Amino acid sequence: MPADPSDLLRPSLAHSAPRLSPYSLQALFLTSFFGGPLAALGMLALNARRLGRLRRDVPWLVVALLAYVLLEAVLALSPAGRGFIAQADAWLGRRAIEYLVRALALAVFALGLVMHRREHKAAELMGLTRPSPWLPALALVFGCSLLAELLRNFMQ
Known about the structure:
Layout: H1 10-14, H2 25-35, H3 37-51, H4 54-77, H5 79-92, H6 96-115, H7 117-126, H8 134-155
Helix pairs in contact: 2-3, 2-6, 2-8, 3-4, 3-6, 3-8, 4-5
């Protein structure tokens, strides 16, 4: 038996690294709204990396990414998708697809709320300072908007 009883706790505490606080929900919402689904997925991946749960979140992020790419492909390449676009344009105007993409981005935001709700609550309860999201958020908004536009042009 060790002389110091605190030695019993050292092995379990020594291997755990302190986790970083996630980016704020406001940053995730604004990135989702202005950058679209790709930017929202990028911000979720950054949060997952900061929280040390990237391995657990990657399957969900890949499924959401594939769903987005499949939706874009169906809308651009199939007759039913083009018919849907024409009908949506008649109902909502020329920006109907932008509205659909924004709604999908906000669905990705909701996915982020569900995936990281415990970590956000813990950060709020513990009073952790959140990192400044502006540099990664702006990079994701501009980069992913450009990438989404290139994807749409490639499929047409």
